[in-house]
Amino acid sequence: MKKLLLTYDGRINRAKFWLAALLYIVIAVVVGVVFSVLWTVFPGEIGEDGTYHVEGIGALPYVVLGLGYVAFSIWSGICVGIKRYHDRGKSGWWVLIQLVPLIGSLWYFIEAGCLRGTVGDNRFGPDPLAGQTGATA
Known about the structure:
Blueprint: H1 2-6, H2 14-41, E1 45-46, E2 52-53, H3 60-87, H4 104-114
Antiparallel strand pairs: 1-2
Helix pairs in contact: 2-3
């Protein structure tokens, strides 16, 4: 999992891309549960507008967990996207297509999540499906 989520070298197929997406969902649920447990240990106040407020040193665990989760998610998402674009035979810089308003996210979804990678070795490494019979991922 470390190689899948935290490095940007090599290639991954669609199946591993979607496995990473599933892992992000699981991690988000776990972080949400940890936030709920933290709320029982370091309670705050719920404002009239429905927002949660924790002040002082009690806010530190929330800040550390929140920033750690965001940093992990951004780095890991970029790494997974780069490897997926590498499988398509393109530069990892293509992950920045997501920053284009309106069409960027759709383009990324189709390119990284739906289209097959290049068959055989390319300049980014060996085919992740090499040796698998009948594989279309």
